[in-house]
User: Fold this.
Amino acid sequence: MAFTTHLLRVFLREQKLRPLTGKGLFIGRQSVLFSGADLVRIAGEEGVPLRNVSVSADDDTRAGGELNDFELFAHFSDIEFDALDVTDYEKANVIHDMNVPVPESLAGQYDFVFNGSCMDNLFNPSEFLRNCSRLLKAGGRMVHTEHASSWPGSYLLFTPDWFLDFFCINNYRDATVFLCDFVGFKGNHHVVSPWHLWNWNPLYQGLIEEHSMHMNPSNRLILAIAEKGEDTTDERQPLQGIYRSNPSLVDPLYVTCCERYKGSPRIDAYKTAQGVDWGQSPAISNLRFVGSL
Assistant:
């Protein structure tokens, strides 16, 4: 698992939206795939001031690097992190298998949870997502990146509605799910290519029961960001929209939450001038171009 420059921009924008404080959790240690010079440049572009903090090289993760994941956020925020993994091979300090429920001692302990593409390597992804929800405090945020196209080593691939429907049925306060398109076919192209963000919401076409349509068969990933509310639940499981044809299956939370999420402040926070809004094409279903990272 790793932090790319795209994710650095996500973290900086989240800091601008609402400062990151308290206690955070990485699902797996994260190799930092950019330099200190990149950090300074991108923070300047994003308008986030950096602090003068000590820097240690990453000697713990397999990829290594100039920057350490635990120290990265100290440059711009007041949050401190734990790391959870199934073993301590990269010096995670919380050991747990996310295929099974987290213990009660971890429930509601974190203000921020980051999953950098662990769910596509597990057999029980629904339990993983419920676990992330259980780990969060009310008011906490989670950020997920997961592959949505063919990728070496992925057990599973995901759709934007898989995430959004979970956030709706559990009444998350806010949720923004992006389908991220990127170019290239070899090597680390998802690291070096821009990510073009398309926001998924079924109500863009007014059909709450519709499922997502994808732009091409490869080179895309999911970026999902959600905030837990006081009334958020962790255990409810959604039914795919296209199969909610019987009125008894249409929980009003789907409509209520999707309507609320259309007005999320993240839509504006992630907008950029780059790219073309192909969402004007009838070939794109319920996806709106937002910007690029």
